[in-house]
Task: structure prediction
Amino acid sequence: MSDRYVIPSLDRAIRILDMLAEEHRAMSLADMARASDIPKSTLFRILVTLRKHHCVVTEPDSNNYRLGSHLWELGNAFADQTDLFRTSKRYMEDLAHACNETVFLSKLEDGEVVYLRRMESPKSITAVRKLESRVPVHCTATGVALMAWLPNDEVDAILDQHGMAAYNEATLTDRQTLKQRLAEVRQRQYAVVDGEYNSELLCVAAPVFDHDGHPRAALTVAMLSAQVESPERIAEVGTTVRRVAHDLSRDLGGRNGNGSENDAA
Result:
């Protein structure tokens, strides 16, 4: 969508909320002005508006700003309206316990991976305390699992828009090689990516399909790469995440990527 339709003040307000979410701390007006390049007078008016709607609050001792409770209310409303979010909980719990690892639920939005929920096994070593809200598709197991069932023109459009940046020496940056990987993922029905985005993580992901056989979401198991003992362990986790993702798809009325009933493999 063209930027000419974007409302500048609203765009700035969302940037401010994103900044407060990423910083994990209350920020002063001066700090936010320096970090955002938004003039103080404009920034102050935006913050007053956000405070009116309880999207930000000020701390009584410093008058610094932090996120407000209305954002939590909006997040809960989103979850309540999403059958995927409601239904996924017990499947994620089962998967976390079966693999003894951290599990994520995610979706594809505007060509990027958006993480929706995290579930940990009591026995898991927490691999990631917080994932970024958006991560690239080409070098994450989640992104590869979601792209593998997209039409080729959609894959090309995503790569044209976002590119294939290298995050470390292991990152796959060749488009043709990526498409070969997508074909392998379709055949195996789960994706494995080791250290290409976060060098410490080996992740295994499988898609959750909608009723048309399109990838609606993905379940991802995140493991510390250094603690993965063997290829057999990866295959074991892959088989499990594929089965649970298929079961979740079926519960949501989904069909697998070949258009047939989504029976667990």
